[in-house]
Amino acid sequence: xxxxxxxxxxxxxxxxxxxxxxxxxxxxxxxxxxxxxxxxxxxxxxxxxxxxxxxxx
Length: 57
Known about the structure:
By secondary structure, the chain is α+β, with helices and mostly antiparallel strands. The chain has a single domain (5-51), classed as Roll (2,3-Dihydroxybiphenyl 1,2-Dioxygenase, domain 1), CATH 3.10.180. Helix content is 18%, strand content 28%. It has 1 helix and 3 strands. The protein has one helix at residues 5-14; strands at 27-28, 33-39, 45-51. A hairpin with a 4-residue loop joins strand 1 and strand 2 (33-39). It is globular, with a radius of gyration of 11 Å. 7% of the residues are buried.
C-alpha cells in the first residue's frame, strides 16, 4: 500500500520495469483505489496500490 502510487511510478521506471497495465501506469480498480503490478527479478509480481484518490472527470 502506498499513499500515492504516482510517487512510486518514477522509481519503477528508473529501475527499467514496466507495469502489466496497457497504459503502463496505475489503473482504477474501484471508485477511489488505483493499482498496478510489476514483475520482480525473481519472476513474481509485486502489486502496488493506493486509495482515497478520486477519478478526474
